[in-house]
## 1
Amino acid sequence: MTDASQTDAQSTFSGTREVDPRHALDSGALDAWLAANVEGYGGPLTIRQFKGGQSNPTYELTTPDRTYVLRRKPPGTLLASAHAVDREFTVISALHAQGFPVARPYALCTDDAVVGSMFYVMEKVEGRVLWDLKLPGMSPAERRAIYDAQVDTLAALHAFDPAEIGLSDYGKPGNYFERQVGRWTKQYRASEIDPIPAMDRLIDFLPATLPPQGPTRIVHGDFRLDNLILAPDTPDVRAVLDWELSTLGDPMADFSYLLIAWVIPATQRNGLAGVDVAALGIPSVEETAARYAGKAGIAPPTNLDWLFAYNLFRLAAICQGIAGRVRDGTAASAHAKSMAAQVPLLADAAWSFARKAGA
């Protein structure tokens, strides 16, 4: 990827734009609700939509004194269990109370009559969102510090006992990978357009080769660099974003999902395979695994090939869901069609790791 296209990725996904007409909000109804439910709120209100985010439409709400962020379920027909913004509000509320870096949650609205679907409002955290994992324009030391802060934040998340912070019922205990494989198989089938042989093979392989169950922890579900807000001029993580896929589960699912960046081609903004990570200052998979294990107090994973197969399968199913929303007219991003085109590539990559894992 050229420097120009790296810059394009940053500008394409960062910042706000005019609200998509399909996702327009009733500003009068919203203003009244905010005045009644958010302490310290005062209009007038200006609404813009964030460019990034494929799934739940996300808005910047600006007032004279404060800026907020609103996340809502998209309008239209949706897959079962998707877009659960009420779950996002629950988990960030619990984690904010523990001092974990998330945006301060203000209020949840479950009344569809206000803006057309459920939503919640949180503070806008100022800082940097970095979209290109190769971190162009930075020094090796700066890159390493950011990667270390990223993995340390994930280890800190996995250190919480869900029951001790009020999240004992945030997900089902046990059988995490079994349930996830079932969930993503179901969502893939619900959104399937053209047959993809590698996905069919994975749907047979993964349930038959599940790893032993690890400890039950809070699993973010989409933990990656561009879901973090970093301080403007230091590597400190100010907020972890996008908790839509979070649940209780095996922390290895989260950690191995972070690691798939190292096996996705560097020609994509979210890939590192094929670049000299040592020269860039980016830790290797082995260094990252050792740091995470030390911070989280667990042994490094020994079944990465299976975990990579699972995560790439899951990504393919998520992208297929986006393709289904393009088909149904409910996709939230202009980039959704390019996401859909990745499904066969992700499926083939997943199958290649499944073969390494014994398929």
Note: The longest helix spans residues 304-328.
## 2
Amino acid sequence: MTSLLSEVLEAHGGLGRWRRFTTVTATLVSDGELFAAKGLPRDLRPRRMTVDLHEEHASVRPFGAPDQHTDFTPGRIAIERADATVVAERLDPRAAFAGHTLETPWDPLDRAYFNGYALWTYLTTPFFMTMDGMVVAETEPWHESPTECWRGLRVTFPACIASHSTVQDFYFGDDRLLRRHDYHVDIAGGFAAAQYVDGIEEADGIRFPTRRRAYLRQPDGRPDHDHVMVSIDLGDVHYA
């Protein structure tokens, strides 16, 4: 473990505390140009997200109907009813995105898969970096302004974990709290994103951002503020 990662873990609540919990739940509202590009209707209704902290599993409700929820793991995405009846299911869901571009339409299972892996990543940052198979190294810092420099960690994900891309960069301020997350959205043509986070809050001793805005990332690394690809607002977060 790098010294920077140790400092980052401690700033976000500490690995010892994190290991005492198994799940986190949060209310979320999401929006952005990505969903419009995928032909999905805009829906700003709050939803309840639950993710497992130590294995990649996530669910959001309601989804598609009041009594429906998603069930996500890297090898399966499903939409189910409250009585566990399967409404729709796809095994090996990543393979379904082969050949997709930014404009390729998504069906409900595509969106459910994206939501599952993305929110799992966000709600377990930075602690997922200690999981087996993660390769973490300090990378070049990001100079946000002439007076603000954020130190970076580059994470290479193992094949068993579904996420935006295999290699992702995370940047942290002087307080070692997350400021920015860079990645490519491989399932949407591989476009480059720079996600900025703020609104740090604390629940059950864990600190996390409540506001995320993912912008198109320009070749020089700067965000294109005219294009908010995904926006996420979180609230009512609880660890158990």
Note: The chain has one domain: 3-235.
## 3
Amino acid sequence: MKLVLSWAAKIASVTLTSGLLMSVSAVHAADVPKGPAMPDAKAGERLFNEGDLTRGIVACSSCHGAAGNSVLPENPNLAAQPHEYIYKQLTEFQPKAGSDVALRLGVGGNPAVMSAMVMPLTDEDMQNVSLYLAEQPLTSPSSASDEDLVSQGQQIWRGGIASKNVPACAACHLANGAGIPGEYPRLGGQFASYLEQQLELFRAGYRNNNEMMTDIAARLSDAEIKAVSDYAAGLR
């Protein structure tokens, strides 16, 4: 009888302890803050195509084309761009806390056109639009247009310029210009004139959101910028 009672007591003790642990675990689980929600690509699609006039948000498609495939060289193709990259750029058109100036400025150091477009966007909006664009195929890539620049552009892209300590573009953006998701943007199929302008902005210090690119662009001449931009436009 004593043995039976002893085992019964042990079982009761284990049951009680387990119940207490489960209760404590449940309380602790409830106290753990939830992480950020997964971006909503459908919400991003609606905002991209329709905007939100109640918040002063213009439809992104009016400048960047259907599903991010632009038909205007001054407005870059955004389709198939890594969502991390798009999100980062959108946030950098907005001034950071404690600053009146955004990291990405336009020609002459003036506010970029995109700054006015991005100001009404919330962080959630930017995440949603970025994910939507990353999931879209690039159906209207640009192309190289100047045969005289191909050789020089290819050399810079693949081998850099040793005499100027300029690294090969392919080292970060890959041989086909696809880039590395989460690290470096896709440049293949982008408009040559847009790429050229961005390199000039990096060189002038007006696009101040990537120290490495600022240093590289500072070593490039106008002719070298034009050549490598045109070459990148033709990559697939």
Note: The mean pLDDT is 89.
